[in-house]
From TrEMBL:
Signal peptide feature range: none
Organism: Rhynchospora tenuis
Phosphoprotein among keywords: no
Pfam families, alphabetized: LRR_R13L1-DRL21 (PF25019), NB-ARC (PF00931), WHD_DRP (PF23559)
This protein's UniProt keywords: Leucine-rich repeat, Plant defense
Domain NB-ARC: 193-365
Protein name per its UniProtKB record: NB-ARC domain-containing protein
Residues covered by the Disease resistance protein winged helix domain: 449-515
Keyword Nuclease: no
InterPro entries: LRR_dom_sf, LRR_R13L1-DRL21, NB-ARC, P-loop_NTPase, WHD_DRP
Amino acid sequence: MALGEAVGLAALRWVASPVIKDVVSKSFSYLGTDMAKGLEDLETTLLPQFQLTIQAALRSPHKDELAKWLARLKIAYYDAEDILHELEYKHLKCRAKADRKKRWVRISSHPIIKPLANVTRKVSQQVSLLSCKKKMLWNQLKKLKEIAAEANTFRDLLSIQSGNENGVLSHKRTFETSAHINHKVFGRNKVRDEIIKFLLDEQEASSSTKSYSVVAITGVGGAGKTTLAQYVYNDEVVKKSFKLRMWLCMSENKDVKERLREIIECSTENKCPNLLNLNLLQNKLKDSLAKFKTILLVLDDVRYDQTEKQWDDLLAPFALIGGRCKIVVTSRNTLFPNTLEPGKLIELPDLEPEDFKSLFRYYAMDGLKLSDPQLKNDLCTIGDQIAAKISKSPLAAKTVGNLLKRSPEKSFWQETRESDNLRSTREVLLWSYEQFDVQLQRCFLFCGVFPKGVYFTAGNELVRYWVALDLFQCTDDNINIDGIGLEYFNMLVACCVFQIVDGKYYMHDLFIDLAKKLSAGDCLRVTNLEREIPIPLTIRYAYVELNNENLEKTLSSICDLRNLRVLILDLQFDTLVNVKKVLRMIFKKFKKLRVLEVRSMGHLVQELPSTVGDLRNLRYLEFWKTSIHELPDSVSQLYHLQYLLLPASIKALPPMLSDLIKLRSIVMYESDYNLVHTLPPVPYLGKLTSLQSLGEFHVSKEDGYNLRQLGSLREIAGSLRIVNLNNVRQKDEAIDARLFDKPKLKRLELVWNESSENGLDLEVIEALQPTADLEYLSIEGYRGSEYPSWFKEGLFLKNVKTLKFYNCSKLTDLPPNLNKSCHHLTDLTVNEFPCLIFVSENELQLDEHQNTLEEDFWLVDGKYLRGQNLNVFDHEIESFKQTGSSQSCPEQLKIIECAAEDLEDIEVELTEDLRRAWWNCHQHRMNFIFRSKIGANKFLLPPTLRVLAISLCCISDGALSDCLTGTAALEELYLEGINTLTSLPSAEVLESLQNLRFLEIGHCWCLRSLGGLHALPNLEKFNVKECWSLQTGVNDDAELPQTLQSISIIGCVVSQAILDSDFPCLQHVAIMSCAGLTSLSFGSLTSLKRLQLVNCPDLSLIHGNFTQHSFIDSLSLQLLPDIIVESVLATWQGCRDLHISSSVMLNKLLLSEKFDTIQNLHIELCLEDAISFEKSDHLLSIKTLFFVNCGIENLPPTLSDFSNLEFIYFINCPIISCFPELPNSVQGISIEGCPVLKERCQPNGPDWQKIQHIQCRYIK
């Protein structure tokens, strides 16, 4: 059979499968016994004989007649399914109205006779409509039966004997679909090393005239070009050598501006601004790339459909940047545009026979568990014979091998060996499709609607489409249909239909080609139409791009597709278009839509027409890549709806949304593609029994929002945060929430926002016993004095990996047996536990504790409490009360409480009386802790712990040492607001923390020593903030580890020699708000990239030896009134980003030859009334200018001297009033938090003419 003929029949064979039987069975459930009578033979006799008839016809000369019959059968099937869908809609509508009537009757206290009469009359009308739909369905099933009966003609024609055909339907082999395979590369090490050598060759890069060089990998489809490029891309040496790596799939011919947006999003990891101008996009990309010294760009599957000019426009930003940039191209072509002329060409050869055999064996046999060794030997022999037979394509070997592994039956392997359909890669791919079960075939066919280069960040994104279209069924109510969909997706990944690149799933272009051919009668992609074209009316899935040029022609071409079920609409208008009118037309024309997805750039779509409620068959509605701010109430009439994907700009959902009882998921996204975890509230949420994701639930005393609403949501999976548990009125509400009966729930957060009026905290948390499969548990604001019984037993914590406690003010200990019951715990947070006290046994045995402080212990002369220090201060009051200060020093406590009454202010004055009062209460607390032995609890933690955060509780030096002694796996440690702590553990303790990479200490007012910090063997990041008694770097034992990559010291006493050593790995240094620091010495910091010196009022001198590596990426010199600028010039050779607050210092730097490389200038925290810029050629290098948090009133007229300035930003500069002329080079301006400037820059304002020529304006 010819390949084209085989493709045509393969695309139709799914019709003659159990999918028709499923529709018939569902129909019978609606028709009732009488109407179904006479159609039984359709289900019991005609359908079971289909496969046997088709198999015989395929071997006969009657294949054309077979194809025509299957096509008619498919249309009849779709028509029956459509009518069934409408019938189901009527039932769902009646049910929703009946539910509303019950609820109305329950809550109404008024006479209801007349309203009930109206409801009864409407229900009667609905029943009449149902009867009409049932008759239509019965007639359509009769038609389906007549077409199905034509199978008898084929039986007679082919002389097929009657027999036992019931088992024929299940002949299709079942494949194991449980897991991804670990993809492995064979025979490409030599060529991989050759490419890597080229990429790392700096001499070659410097010789390039374009600032980038190209290596091209060419070969036929399926030869492994993408696999080899991935092999290079993911190599550890390459990862370390290139600071920015980007992967772009070029299979589809896209507009240059769209490609530039994709690269910008890759380079910034953020959504690209809505820039429509090519120059703006190029400059935006150039600025993004300029931040990286080394760049690797992979252009995968390049087709060269673009012109030379388009390639020049796309790669122009790469040609203009400095530094080392390499481009890897994969392509089937060997001719290249001039812009992509390769410096090295790799024509990918066939694998050596032994390598190919090893590749096939790995995918067919690796991990295959067979109890019969003889069978394994036989399969190995047959497998080698299959490998020798199939084409030398690695893609073919992987695909066939995976399918064989998933069905280790000797007969199937032998049948495969004898097949004539494995001679070419395309034949192999078709053969693999034919091995899929019918449901997976339908899922694969649907993928033909997508353009090449499309990717999914997760499998469930594709599964949602499949579920919404009923492409597969699940007869077991205990099995999640989305889970089945993910298994199917994993099967496609294992068979190389999808390739994983940079964490994204791309469909292989050869499989897309196959899917498009197989689904040609069902799927359509419309793009860049130059004229109206005839489109088959059988089309049911459409991907349509609309732009200003093709709008009318495209709409005219698709308007007659009355059977359309899927419409993915990509709006690419670059001028204003009445999008609402376009959407109304679509809603009017395509009444059978089940999936509607609308994508747009910027703010093109801001409103969803109410006529969306007319799409009664809709199951999937996606508008999250738009800017709509409100959902019309008519959405509540989409009773079939299962998936609703929206933008975060929507702040409220329709009040009747709970009528959509089939809704499975409501998902909202921010504009930067991040998931929103808090959804707007929906009353009577408990009706949505199929809901799988909720995010956050706010408990209210109002009817429809109480905790009972969660009881019926058994399908909730993933994460659930329950807020306002203080609104639970009785224990039964919590019991009825049935958290224990939510087996798919993995993450649970329980939050009390204030004290319960009825003191039910313990009873409520007792009733909220979660599932034993929980992995993450957080408890916040709990006021009970003990843990619930399910916590004590530990049975429900055995799988917990993350455990967090916040503000549990009455608990006096950690959960019992925490180190024994939580076998998998890796992350523990203990925050704001005023009653939690831990002291080591050794400390309790001392006559006097060593934590005594002198009255003048604070070395930092702070005058005000601000920020996090206010939270620490507020917590101290409760801690003092718990440790007896109310009785021992009531007057001092009164002073503190009076000061705390002002905590709503942004700061509290730290008077001498307040200092002395705090000191007295603190001394009493320490005496109370050590003498009463109240803290004799053992602070024992599980050895599996990797992250530990302790804050706002009482832990002594010895207790901290004891708890860290058994945590060798610890990677991150956070200590915050622990005022009973005076020293970090000794070197003996800390040197055992081999895995500790991150240490942060904040607001520990009594901490005086860093202990054995220098002994930490692998510490990479160290942050210390406002530890007022600490002197960093003063003593020899306070040396910092030389492994540090980042250090941040804020609000502490700092030695001038703290960095006067060799720190070969140090990349970032921040020293802020450190009064008393007069000079700062730098040792050898060869890796330094970012330095921040901010608000050090006494700092005057900077010195260090920076002869070779003194250029840094970012330099911040802010609020340094005494700094000697000459010491700055003597220390550094310049920077790319400069953050500065003094115009005097700025002008001195700009006059120096060393600072001619500044590209981004940030004027921040400038307190001058007016600033000026002295004329300098170095202003020409500045591309972006920021004014942030400044008290400037007048801007200098010399802004026009920045003749190459492209973007200018004004952020939180409230009194800027004078706006000079800007240079003509400015392409973008942003004004935010500047009320005076905002008014002046309105269309009728005095400064409007100065900015109206700028293409991109953002004024907020």
